[in-house]
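Q&A log
Question type: sequence-to-structure
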Amino acid sequence: MGFEQLAVLKQQLAKEAKEAKRQATKSVRPAQPAESKTTGRAGAKSGAVDPVLRVIGKLQKRFPAAFPKNPAPKVPLKIGILTDLLTHAEELALNEAEIRLAVGTWCRGSRYWACLTDGAARVDLTGASAGLVTARDAAFARSQAKDAYASRRQDRGAPQPENAPTGQPPSAAGEVA
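Response status: OK
Response body:
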């Protein structure tokens, strides 16, 4: 079974579970009226949406090939994608700082680092091929992943292996893809 089929299956199961949960909660308690969208809250339990997640959501809706929704794997973005996105800033009703923060957040983390393998195709906003991931980029991604892993282990107080990274930033400059 391929990743796409697994992703579809996972979505179906999630929908079924959500519907079952919704049916169970309807029979247990009466429905509560939703609050105004201007407050950013739809009930007492949920809080305001993180502004970066809101921007990433806009990018996912407008450019689904470049910014796939989870559980689909992330794809390596072309070098200079930020410049391309800034040309669409007005259309997306976003400013440069919001776009920069969203792209920086998107390109940081294990899901993105995992897609940066040597020779993988980079994509532009439309999903078209726009170059390849270099060995240097792949090594940098592995370094970032190791540093993050070591940091999490250190936060938990677990002993680190003798050959674990020292936590110093890698010598390669962190390029925004």
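Response note: The longest helix spans residues 3-28.
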